[in-house]
Amino acid sequence: MQKQYYAIIDIGSNTMRLVIYLREKGGRLKEVENVKAVARLRTFLETDNTLNSAGIKRLIATLQSFQDVLATYELQEVVCVATATIRQAENQEEILIQVEKQTTMTIRILSEEEEAYYGYLAVVNSTSIETGITVDIGGGSTEVTYFENRELIESHSFPFGALTLKEFFAKEIPTNQELLALRNYLTEQFATLPWLRNREVPLIAIGGSARNLVQIDQNLKEYPLAGLHQYKMYDTDIIQVSNYLTSLKPDKLPKVEGLSKDRADIIIPAIEVFHSLYKMMQADCFILSRKGLRDGVFYEQLSKEMGSILFPNVLEDSIQELINDFDLDPKQILHVQYLTRILFDYLKENGLLHLTKKDWTLLKRASYLCHLGDYIDAESSAQHTFYLLANRTIDGLMHKDRLQLALIASYKNKTVFKQFIKPYKKWFLKEEQKKLRHLGALLKFSYCLDATKRQVVKQITCDNHNDSLTITLHCDGDAKPEEYQSEKQKKHVEKAIKKDVELKFVL
Question: What local confidence, expressed as pLDDT, does residue 1 receive?
Fold first, then answer.
């Protein structure tokens, strides 16, 4: 089957970006190319709100450079959208004509409502957040939305962005008076929307300034996990980053780890937007979404085929992508899930382990991806499984949830588990660590019961004695390999339940 590539060009006030996606088997889009150009079109707007000839020239030159990249792909579709600067330009008709004449591209100018809507659409289709407020700071505008039960309730576009707000400051590092003036202005602006006040829901941020804020925070904390999408911060973290940046000398600002040089002069006003909004809505946390306007545009395209603008199963779809990418066996996965559920329910109902509904959710997710590392090297499968799951973005999972999944799915033994969890020990209480170990041991044991991927063990029955547990495995055919592997693995289950385990394989 021929690969299907799609491209989008996003003409922003600060940056222009070309993103090329590959459509996956399941229908979702995977980013394969991301080209950025710092055009700063906003700075070419004259006082009469016309984009001057130098600005038009830069716009066209950047689009022509993007065309060279586009020429290397066989594309199903190319979409070119523009936001605040082109939207606000009085000579936009002239701009569109010039662009089409010199590049053959047709620019679609997004309205304020559309820009806000696509940001919302990207968030709800790439996270599991049911209710929240999104904020997307561009160079010339800031969009906010409120969604409840994944449905868009309110949206608004403010006529200020990171480039316009920097005008509050005489220099890159503001004085206390300048900061206070900006904060008062932002508070007044956000107060005009009653639906923002005291929401006590997550604040989900989109865009380059939000990414830079998160990258700086991760570097300051020496954060051990890879990935930005669905990274969580709190108001104290935002304040700490702001205080750190405002304490620097101007020449040190562009050298900050995690901060793009082209954002050094606009990052502080952008952070003030996040913090002012956080306070206004009394947010319970700040979350970054790496998916934004560009993704939202294509989610809308996909929704026409699906019949719904909302992907019903964000996390499940993301896990299915991993199953496809690493060529995992769906038949084996479902069978191991079935055997694991029998053991899980028995241990729970007979008080051999304290297990909850949430534990089964964790265990079920991990069961999909238990042998993912085999794709790279069977001998060091556990190490590869852990690394891949801990460091790959999984839409619908926050970072700590992703780490739990990696620890359970990669379980080999207690020693290896301790190696994996060492950089993250402060993330979990001792009891939580023990629970993850027990769930990992149970899953590893269940996979041993289908070691040859033949589904030879058809049913399990258990008999609980005072000092032992007898597990009878009802088989359809020879189960010697399964018997050998499970006898090796059962000691981890024995340690968890504090009882000897006797295995009986019967035909």
Answer: 60
In the structure encoding, which two tokens stand for residue 81, read together? 């959208």
Given 3.40.30.10, 3.30.420.40, 3.40.1190.20, 3.40.50.720, which CATH number is that of 4-110?
A: 3.30.420.40
**Contact status, residue 165 vs residue 273, Cβ threshold 8 Å:** yes
Q: Which of 271, 247, 267 is nearest to 176 (CA)?
A: 247
Residue ranges of alpha helices (H) inside 3-91 are 53-70, 84-88
How far is residue 195 CA from its own chain's centroid? 26
What is the secondary structure of 341-388 as a DSSP string? HHHHHHHHHTTSS---HHHHHHHHHHHTSTTGGGGT-STTHHHHHHHH
Where in the chain are the domains?
4-110, 113-294, 316-505
Which strands, in side-by-side order, build the sheet including 151-158?
A: 151-158, 142-148, 132-137, 203-206, 286-289, 232-233
Its pTM stands at 0.92
CB contact at 8 A, 129 and 123: yes
The rounded Cα 263 to chain-centroid distance in angstroms is 22
Angle at 373 between CA 459 and CA 315, to 5 degrees: 75
pLDDT in tens, 8-28: 999 999 999 999 999 877 667
pLDDT digits over 85-106, tens only? 999 999 999 999 999 999 999 9
Q: How far is CA 44 from CA 63, 89, 300, 475, in A?
A: 17, 10, 31, 75
What type of residue is 496?
A
